[in-house]
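Technical annex, item 7. During the second reporting period the consortium partners agreed on a shared format for inverse folding records so that results from different sites could be compared directly. Each record opens with the tokenized structure and is followed by the designed sequence. A conforming record, contributed by the partner at site C, is shown below for reference.
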């Protein structure tokens, strides 16, 4: 049975969303800056942990958090709030996620005490061939030659994910959950400084296509300034179709045709997406991948995501070490974390892909005995050499020779976490891939460039690459939506955007909270140190820079750079909910 939102909610939500950004900024400005953090956290603009008793939502934009909070206040559950949050994010944070992309969802159902995952990842078109991202001479295309235009667009999965999961688990009316985003697209939203800056940085590419040029840029080609009220009537029209027709209105009919026309008639870089790809798209419910860390079960999305496996491997390799005793100031801590990450990424590059297409040693990669074996490589005083960081030999049921992956994964994406009054939990990471996706629009939303998450090369030295392009296949992802369980009950919902660095961001926040005793907001505020392939990335302008010299002495090459995560998390503790939102983005945690 669906529950209709009461009239007062419907009358006031659009206005409250319009005011949400300004009021939230005022509230944040009034927060105390006296939170205790380790020295390494200096230099990151901090937020304070938010505490609530009934429900909470933490998302990357105040409008989205406010929309989710309003649904929860009206009696909706976490899945209802998920619909409202995602549809608003697609409007106010269009560079990161939206109707034209895909998502992974980890969901805890309090009625059945069950944890499951839903795969809304984009798929390669039926007409995709192994040479999709090769030039006329058989060499991989340059990244942005592949990204811009229709060639990189996979079958979007987000709308189907929202609709199908809501049908199975939602309480409120679907149409009324779509309405807040319709209202906001109609009255307009305030452009944030972050969105304005990202439009400015991408203006040259956004100007290549009429649809993106007309929506994102002023007549003189400049970006709209922060505070500009942006309306999107085309998006509102699309949402009205979806509100009345459900997912079918997106995957069939005039809207589907508009998507295909945009992709296939792109003059600069046409793609091969077809109506049959949209019509045949399905969501897949999959079992979570879980790894025990200390007294917690860390659970997330399995293949085609590498998230839960790689986060799980990093944590699993650290189990024998007393991370709490070493602490966040110790170079040894970061040597252990960095080299555990490098070993996990070596396995990721060799084995991880869409397991519906490629046999994968999923269980073997997180087998405790295998992780203990890999962990022994960390029993050294110096950084592992390049020769030591190779893929391992996990136990598995298939014998298959695979070459290392050559895909490129650049950061964008968004993440939100939700807990409702009944204890249902949503941890969802959502994306259109690179910032602004393919840089082409249909129906008021950007289309993804997700196909560039496949390896551009299909083989290496004659050996096939697991994450190669194949028709209907889902490209490997690093998205790591996570729910941590303790004693059979949810303890934390967490995730982040950030390309393949997502894995490091999520693993670090978990370690900071569990091992180093930081509250969840302090764990998010903490500067990032990420090592995937040997070079240690240290977050620019933060206390992480003081570890540059000690890490170099251990044998690492160090790169000081911006590391813009977007971690949004909620923790169950002391009979309350404690939420955190990443200060590197515009979001907030809200609850009651």
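Designed sequence (site C submission):
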């Amino acid at each position: 049975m669906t529950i209709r939102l009461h009239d007062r909610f419907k009358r006031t939500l659009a206005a409250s969303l319009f005011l949400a950004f300004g009021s939230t900024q005022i509230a944040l400005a009034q927060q105390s800056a006296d939170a205790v953090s380790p020295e390494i956290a200096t230099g990151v603009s901090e937020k304070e942990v938010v505490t609530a008793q009934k429900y909470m939502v933490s998302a990357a934009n105040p409008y989205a958090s406010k929309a989710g909070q309003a649904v929860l206040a009206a009696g909706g559950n976490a899945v209802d709030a998920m619909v409202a949050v995602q549809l608003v994010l697609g409007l106010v944070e269009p560079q990161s996620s939206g109707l034209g992309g895909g998502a992974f969802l980890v969901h805890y159902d309090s009625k059945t005490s069950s944890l499951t995952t839903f795969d809304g990842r984009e798929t390669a078109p039926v007409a995709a061939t192994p040479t999709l991202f090769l030039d006329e001479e058989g060499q991989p295309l340059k990244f942005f030659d592949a990204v811009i235009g229709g060639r990189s667009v996979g079958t979007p999965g987000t709308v189907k994910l929202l609709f199908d999961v809501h049908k199975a688990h939602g309480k409120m009316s679907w149409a009324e959950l779509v309405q807040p985003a319709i209202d906001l697209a109609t009255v307009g939203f305030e452009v944030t400084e972050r969105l304005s800056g990202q439009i400015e940085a991408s203006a040259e590419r956004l100007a290549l296509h009429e649809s993106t040029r007309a929506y994102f840029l002023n007549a003189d080609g400049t970006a709209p300034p922060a505070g500009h009220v942006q309306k999107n009537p085309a998006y509102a029209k699309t949402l009205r179709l979806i509100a009345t027709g459900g997912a079918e209105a997106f995957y069939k009919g005039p809207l589907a045709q508009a998507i295909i026309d945009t992709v296939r008639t792109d003059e600069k870089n046409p793609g091969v997406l077809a109506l049959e790809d949209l019509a045949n798209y399905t969501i897949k419910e999959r079992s979570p991948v879980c790894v025990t860390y200390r007294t917690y079960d860390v659970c997330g999305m399995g293949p085609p995501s590498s998230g839960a496996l790689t986060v799980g491997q990093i944590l699993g390799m650290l189990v024998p070490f007393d991370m709490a005793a070493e602490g966040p100031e110790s170079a040894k801590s970061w040597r252990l974390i960095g080299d555990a990450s490098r070993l996990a990424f070596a396995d990721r590059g060799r084995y991880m892909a869409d397991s519906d297409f490629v046999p994968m040693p999923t269980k073997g990669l997180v087998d405790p005995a295998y992780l203990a074996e890999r962990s022994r490589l960390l029993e050294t005083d110096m950084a592992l050499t390049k020769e030591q960081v190779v893929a391992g030999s996990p136990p598995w049921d298939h014998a298959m020779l695979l070459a290392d992956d050559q895909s490129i994964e650049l950061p964008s994406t968004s993440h939100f976490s939700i807990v409702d009054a009944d204890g249902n939990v949503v941890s969802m990471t959502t994306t259109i891939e690179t910032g602004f996706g393919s840089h082409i629009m249909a129906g008021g939303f950007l289309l993804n460039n997700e196909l560039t998450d496949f390896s551009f090369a299909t083989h290496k030295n004659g050996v096939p690459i697991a994450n190669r392009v194949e028709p209907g296949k889902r490209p490997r992802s690093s998205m790591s939506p996570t729910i941590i369980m303790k004693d059979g009950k949810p303890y934390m919902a967490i995730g982040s955007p950030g390309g393949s660095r997502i894995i490091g961001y999520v693993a670090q926040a978990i370690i900071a909270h569990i091992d180093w005793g930081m509250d969840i907001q302090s764990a998010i505020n903490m500067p990032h140190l990420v090592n995937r392939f040997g070079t240690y990335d240290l977050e620019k302008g933060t206390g992480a820079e003081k570890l540059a010299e000690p890490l170099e002495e251990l044998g690492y090459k160090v790169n000081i750079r911006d590391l813009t995560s977007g971690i949004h998390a909620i923790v169950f503790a002391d009979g309350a909910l404690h939420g955190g939102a990443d200060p590197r983005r515009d979001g907030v945690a809200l609850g009651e």
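Confidence is low (pLDDT under 50) at residues 1-9, 11-38, 405-409. Residues 7-30 form the longest helix (24 residues). All partners now use this format for quarterly exchanges.
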